[in-house]
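Recap for those who missed Tuesday's class. We walked through two folding examples back to back. For each one, the amino acid string is listed first and its predicted structure tokens come directly after. Nothing is annotated here on purpose, so try labeling regions yourself before you check the end of the notes.
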Amino acid sequence: MSKYNALWDCVRFQSAPQLTLSFDEIQQIAGIPIDHSFLQYKKELTAYGWQVQKISMKGKTVCFAKTDS
């Protein structure tokens, strides 16, 4: 079980092809702050038909996009 499962569940049920969440929104959804380990965990999202498209450290946002498969 991943520490980001709540986030993955939230993202996978979105109908839009893209979703941008702030670090604060991710913390509220996941129940934990986003940290450097997110870079390793983001690979899990592909199993749900999504990928992390962009992480903005300046804007403190993560952009998610549906995969074509």
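Example two. Treat it independently of the first, because the proteins are unrelated.
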Amino acid sequence: MTNRDFSDSVKQSAITDNLRQNNGDVCCALCGTKLLSINECHFDHVFPFAKGGKSTLENCQILCISCNLKETDKELHD
């Protein structure tokens, strides 16, 4: 695992937080698509790793494959 990767404990916490926020479903943070399995979850840096973002829970969001592939290394809030 590199510093870029989220640890298993961060991923688990991100899933737990996402489940709480979405009434028991895991959903994409951008489009809201319901994700049916862990294989559909992409763990993404809110503030890009390439720009100094850390691999912490506070900087982790769950995206669907489609939303993650549309991204570049820019901030989502730009």
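Answers for example two:
Helices lie at 8-21, 65-70.
The longest helix spans residues 8-21.
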